[in-house]
Amino acid sequence: MNRVVKTLLPVIVVHGGASVIPIQFIKEKEQGAKLAALEGYKILKKGGSCIDAVVKAVSCLEDNPMFNAGRGSVLNEAGGVEMHALVMRGDTCGVGGVLCIQHARNPVQVAKIILDESPHCLLTGEAGLKMARKHNLPEESLKYFITDHAKSMFENYDKYKKAVDGIINSKQNELTDEHDTVGAVALDYHGNLACATSSGGFTMQKVGRVSDSPIVGSGGYADNESGKKNKLTGQKPGRMVQRV
Amino acid sequence: MNRVVKTLLPVIVVHGGASVIPIQFIKEKEQGAKLAALEGYKILKKGGSCIDAVVKAVSCLEDNPMFNAGRGSVLNEAGGVEMHALVMRGDTCGVGGVLCIQHARNPVQVAKIILDESPHCLLTGEAGLKMARKHNLPEESLKYFITDHAKSMFENYDKYKKAVDGIINSKQNELTDEHDTVGAVALDYHGNLACATSSGGFTMQKVGRVSDSPIVGSGGYADNESGKKNKLTGQKPGRMVQRV
């Protein structure tokens, strides 16, 4: 059941990945995240849906080479790019996810098509691309996705690995590089919630490694009706979570 | 921490899929499930690990054309077979999963190799097959997997669909056919838990549809240390769950 809560202001929250950001990238990353949030917010402000808002915001992050999703994705052990994305809507708890997709400029838009049209909630990259082609979603060659920064992380993997180990061992001073998923969560005027996630995985991952990002409950979760009932209104607050 | 509970008897529980079984298959299915449980139990009785036991039991079900896993898997919309498997060990909570794999005679054994050797916990079919080949795991042509029964369900999809709709709508009297995942859970002499799952998905599924069977927490879960502490011993009972 949709909750029409007219007094609610729409909200969107965007993130560009959880890690220590090299100082030279902080400004551009901040700007990129702000732009993505604003683009999503424009949709919400016009009364648009939270689903469209999170897809728009994550598409912005995917288009921005500063983030590890879409263009800017890190390289796997073969020097290729395999991407993962998820969209979940809180009104129906419907999910669309795609894993190990190549060439799609915006994996999150492929996930949205899977959410809208597939009888299944999670598809492999090839199956996702097949659906995307029916909708003429833009495709790019491998070259488009590879940034100098991703190439440098690939070529300097030992140093990068030290950074990842640093995260695992919580030795913050060893961190020298960034990685991880991007995502957005939103609440619209209609009281609906949605989340979206997109990731290029991590440098030197095996070909065919499936990220947790496109998996419901791992990469993200949105449910209008979860949580404890409000004793006065009888409404549940809803919940949306996003892995960072 | 492994719990050595010498007074414990090892246990294995096996299932061959949750649905109404056509009367003509009941005996063979029962025998198949018993055989699988006994094969797994033999390992446990000798002091072997719960992981080896569940892999053995599920391999038996995969080899048995009566079940929708390995040989006997149902056909997708293209008349092909894509299989999914998961193994999880409760001592480390380590997981190995493979999705949309073709040709591997025993997808659950591929999942076990991923558990043991991959730095990742979930791989696509092609990546899983690459690892399986290094271990000379047996492969088969598509013909091996396709049974007359799976072919008949594919050719009579409308009738089969009615059966699936029947399950969804809980109209038991409309059920005429079986489907679904197989699996096993086990507890060994060392007090360790494990689970394993294998599935051919469902008839006429889209190519590239990812089942929930190979996904940790969806297809199965095993954890030696979960649950409430025993007030006398301080031990936690452990938990293993298996989707059926």
TrEMBL record, chains A, B:
Start and end residues of each stretch annotated as Disordered: 218-244
Active site (UniProt): 181
Signal peptide from the UniProt entry: none
Any one annotated GO CC term: cytoplasm
Name of this chain's protein: Isoaspartyl peptidase/L-asparaginase
Matching Gene3D superfamilies: (Glycosyl)asparaginase
Cited InterPro entries: Ntn_hydrolases_N, Peptidase_T2
One Pfam family cited in the UniProt record for this chain: Asparaginase_2
Site entry (Cleavage), positions: 180-181
GO molecular function per UniProt: hydrolase activity
Family: Belongs to the Ntn-hydrolase family.
GO biological processes: L-asparagine catabolic process via L-aspartate
Species of provenance: Phallusia mammillata
